[in-house]
Amino acid sequence: MRVAVVGTGVIGASWTTLFLLHGHEVVAADPAPGAEERLRAAVAADQRRLSFTSDLAEAVANADFVQENGPERADLKDELFTVLDAAAPPGTILASSSSGLPPSRIQRACTAHPERVLVGHPFNPPHLIPLVEVVPGERTDEAVVEEAMRFYRSLGRRPIRLRQELPGHVANRLQAALWREAYSLVERGAASVADIDAAIAHGPGLRWALLGPFLNQHLSGGPGGIAHVLEHLGPPMEEWWADLGTPRLTPDLTRAIAEGVNDELAGAAEADLVAERDALLSLLLDAKNRTDHL
């Protein structure tokens, strides 16, 4: 299969790695100076099936699937998808990695075949994290959604289909809810940045890496399951909701968070942390793949 990767920054390079690891031919496109050199330095896979061009139309002219990873700006998406829609074969799916723009907005630039446009939003880095959020727009054909889901599954991904177009889709909204309260706790002076990170990384985050919020609640409810949890813990949880903060990212709060992160790092090299994180992610995913239900 010939896959075009449009935009070769961090996300595009990771998608390229994933496509190559699964045996696909990849043509990557990015007009930025030095983009090919940066891409080839970042791709952790055999590059014999990787070609590069700065011409977007050339990249997608013979593509079977297009994964777009341009900047998160509506005007730039319009420019990109005007070219992609005109140049790609009519049956080629145009998937955007957009983390927040609704696909119906992206489809406006596609006058030829808007029905083959959708969002295929990964989680960084896509070659490691299995989640892909598949979001159809108002004019997306159902067969296109099903084909995109099949393609992402063939890459070992775990695609989920969204039934509504929402700013930030689903996973980023869930993250934003957690960040909102984490920032509020810093603003209140209730806990340090390091302690908030520790509370998640050494507490519920360990279970969240295995099961989602509903199943974790269900398993904590014993024989009564989630119904028992909601009956007994629902009222106090509603009280907690009422007390959650509504912080604003003021200069003071932004500075406090940045200083807290620097204190937490305590001179540790970020590259080492990234390497350890990715190595542990690989071990965790391998272990999950050896289970029957996770």
From TrEMBL:
<dbReference type="InterPro" id="IPR006108">
    <property type="entry name" value="3HC_DH_C"/>
</dbReference>
<dbReference type="InterPro" id="IPR006176">
    <property type="entry name" value="3-OHacyl-CoA_DH_NAD-bd"/>
</dbReference>
<dbReference type="Pfam" id="PF02737">
    <property type="entry name" value="3HCDH_N"/>
</dbReference>
<comment type="similarity">
    <text>Belongs to the 3-hydroxyacyl-CoA dehydrogenase family.</text>
</comment>
<dbReference type="InterPro" id="IPR013328">
    <property type="entry name" value="6PGD_dom2"/>
</dbReference>
<keyword id="KW-0560">Oxidoreductase</keyword>
<dbReference type="InterPro" id="IPR022694">
    <property type="entry name" value="3-OHacyl-CoA_DH"/>
</dbReference>
<feature type="domain" description="3-hydroxyacyl-CoA dehydrogenase NAD binding">
    <location>
        <begin position="45"/>
        <end position="163"/>
    </location>
</feature>
<dbReference type="Pfam" id="PF00725">
    <property type="entry name" value="3HCDH"/>
</dbReference>
<feature type="domain" description="3-hydroxyacyl-CoA dehydrogenase C-terminal">
    <location>
        <begin position="168"/>
        <end position="235"/>
    </location>
</feature>
<protein>
    <submittedName>
        <fullName>3-hydroxyacyl-CoA dehydrogenase NAD-binding domain-containing protein</fullName>
    </submittedName>
</protein>
<dbReference type="InterPro" id="IPR008927">
    <property type="entry name" value="6-PGluconate_DH-like_C_sf"/>
</dbReference>
<dbReference type="InterPro" id="IPR036291">
    <property type="entry name" value="NAD(P)-bd_dom_sf"/>
</dbReference>
<comment type="pathway">
    <text>Lipid metabolism; butanoate metabolism.</text>
</comment>
